[in-house]
Amino acid sequence: MPNYFSPEKETASREQIRAWQDAGLRDCVRRVYDNVPYYRKKMEEAGVAPEDIGGLEDLHKLPFLTKDDLREAYPYGLMARPLTDCVRIQSTSGTTGRRVVAFYTQHDVDLWDECCARAIVAAGGTPDDVVHVSYGYGLFTGGPGLNGGSHKLGSLTLPMSSGNTDRQIQFMTDLGSTILCCTPSYAAYLAESINERGLRDKIHLKAGIFGAEAWTEEMRRDIENALGIKAYDIYGLTEISGPGVAFECSEQSGMHINEDYFIAEVIDPKTGEVLPEGEKGELVFTSFAKEAFPLLRYRTKDICILSRERCSCGRTFVKMTKPLGRSDDMLIVKGVNVFPSQIETVLLNHGYAANYQIIVDRQKNSDSIEVRVEMTPEMFSDELSKITAREKELVAALKSMLGIYANVRLVEPKSIVRSEGKAVRVIDKRNLYQG
Amino acid sequence: MIAHTKGGNTMEYTQQISVFLENRPGTLAELTDVLWKNNIDMRAMCVADAMDFGIARIIVDDVYETMTVLKDAGYVCQITKVLTVEMADEPGGLSKILALLGSAGINLEYTYAFLSRKKDTAYLVLKVAEPEKAEAVLRAEHIRLIGQETLQGIFGD
To answer: Is the predicted ipTM greater than 0.85, yes or no?
Structure first.
């Protein structure tokens, strides 16, 4: 039974959506050109002025924006509104170099909440539901996003945050949580813990909204069977707002992008050329409706396919496939973005050589990351305790850099396989990207 | 006149080679194969292991040659000065030596024993925090220390 949070938006005609996007784009380009020197300079360099952008057909004239731009403009360089108009900051994990700080006006928070509310409704949520949010709260957008969506919808919101599994399960049973929001790996872990404790009959979950990391159809079936629920994917990134940029509907085959707020394009990651619908490429977003931190043609580095085929749920918004890969070397482990360069920085800062390998695995639907480091004469000692103490320091430094625990394994020199002289830095055994 | 009672020349150290080994099947065999192929005879060996790695500690006659061979084979290794003590191969032999060090307040980091062809005699390798002090304590009790140069002699080959 189809149900929408914003029916007039989610089922609008393609012409109507196009009209919103045309008007929104024109307005956004004008705003950033007038208010953001960084954008003005970039547009001038590309030889494009606001009057050149009449609508979507002119979008390709605008230069791309990348994480490098965000880093260069950090922290205030891309703001289109004064700080006094802003009410919120969210940020991605990572080093100062990689950190992305996003600003929100109240309008931006409302827009984001609305996107998440749509996702909850698409998963069968109503104001009668108890929404159990086990994403991390804080700078990470997961918790605040779904929390806001649940409030907007008028559901009873349980702001659990992540961790403390016993407490999670106790609240779930005592307070009758009906919709679980967390990373798919944590959902799988919770499912296992619930079944181990024999509490499957005591929980009232009917659906789950799981995002912030890639997951397979097998994992979806595992979680659905283990908890007796329907499991839905949700997509987003801090740069664009957070979770809810796109969400799955009852079809469970791709995520509807909230096109009244975001324009999606798919490009060839090598040439930057816009690809026709149905072709696989890098996803690019223009968040034209945002006030404080609108991004024009932001390259997500996520590889996916867009489809405007009619969906049985009745929504007319374009659908994106689950990400099919990355066009950079970013890994998502336990829902956290990890760049090999972050690990390299820690190793070098701790006196290790840059001969390392990152092994990512998923056992029983739970991610693990291991960093193999080659021993060097400088780091070696005859005393076991000295080496293990250094190893512990390294583990702590990695935890602080990445936000997650990474196991460290010391290996013999030259034991890390090099192909054509270059070490294979990452071995991801999870095979997350299908299709 | 300056009394020359203590100095590098009078110290009797053994130069142990410590080798880093990762914890996976076959690593020790790989190490001993390298020594074998280069005709290096180990006088003593012990392996200490942590969770994910180990340290092989070996005593050989020609330290320089062995270090060269190991480095060429890609090992991370280093020389550690240890004391090698001769003791009677009889009940209580080890206790006597440990008691001496203990009562002198010398902390023992690790130890292992080996035998030679000399009858009724065993050898104890000691890694202590204060080697000079340990040496003085042991010498005062007329306990024989085997230096790197005299090592080959006790095997008589």
So the answer is: no
